[in-house]
Amino acid sequence: MVDGNGTSGGNSHQIVSAAARATVSCRKLRINPNNEVRPDNYEDLQLDFPNPVYKNLEKYLPPDMLVSNREERVRFMTDIMLSHLPSGERSKAQKHSDYRSKIVSNYQPLHRELYNLVPRLCFVPSFLKAINENTEDSFRSIISEASPGVFVFDMLLPSFCEMMLAEIDNFEKWVAETKFRIMRPNTMNKYGAVLDDFGLDTMLDKLMECFIRPISKVFFNDVGGASLDSHHGFVVEYGKDRDVDLGFHVDDSEVTLNVCLGNQFVGGELFFRGTRCEKHVNTATKSDEIFDYCHVPGQAVLHRGRHRHGARATTSGHRVNMLLWCRSSSFRELKRLQKDFSSWCGECSCEKREEKARTFDAIRKKYVKAVRAPQA
């Protein structure tokens, strides 16, 4: 069993200078949020952290920063956040920032319309209708729970899938021509690319915030579905001269979106084997947790990151999937303080039921003994 983990997910960072840290230290954030502030949207700017983080932090800005322009507010908030990173993390963030800057400044996109999410160009009408209504009933009308915790629905238009495939192919040609060494999506995939690294981070952030988070709030609220605030977006490729299969693992996410972009292929089924917390990640699979899913281009699979899964061999053709690992910083903080995950971990739930049964049996035996005891 392997814990899946990605390369530096979320958005890139820049190292903060000593002078900037000195400035930040002189201008402190509010202790309590100013709930009268209506947060701005910064997704059109070059950000070092996810857009939702800036929107949440804005309520804590000092009064003089609230009246400054958007760019100055972003610089101030970025400096604040970077100043709290350990020195090792700052160095790592700087290298990743430089890496992304080299790609974005040299790579010429094939389809620029992909880099700003235009819903009518991306999504099938039924998905858009459900999102616009934004109710549990509307979501359930288009989403089927194929297996406990595994939700399937039609999502992407064929034309969007084709554009994404062409963009990925264009990026890979640029990589080959320039001999640029790129970071792969995670430690398990040798092929594929991190979409955030060549400029699609803003588009994917909007996809998570406006489309995946509302659904996750309904179906995955127990793992921070309502508070998703960062992501790691990438594509993986399977087939001849590519990865063949993917071992049994869990994702470094609270909620995972997996969409097949297409091409002709045989095999590559996803196999699911139950959701587990870290303590129980290697425990046995129960019969009702076994589920296999066959990919359909444009169709999305949504599941908890801790839902154990893998991919069978793609025996012929070429398959490309887009994945979005959605994360919640607040849930991760809370999880550190928790010990009971029975609301979503299959093994914790089983242990809790067994403990209740033992407690009930002990009470029953005590009661029977009391009834049978001779009266004085």
TrEMBL record:
Keyword Oxidoreductase in annotation: yes
Domain of life: Eukaryota
Named cofactor requirement(s): L-ascorbate
Alphabetical UniProt keywords: Dioxygenase, Iron, Metal-binding, Oxidoreductase
Keyword Transit peptide: no
Domain Fe2OG dioxygenase: 229-328
Gene Ontology terms for molecular function: dioxygenase activity; iron ion binding; L-ascorbic acid binding; oxidoreductase activity, acting on paired donors, with incorporation or reduction of molecular oxygen
Protein's name in the database: (rape) hypothetical protein
Lineage of the organism: Eukaryota, Viridiplantae, Streptophyta, Embryophyta, Tracheophyta
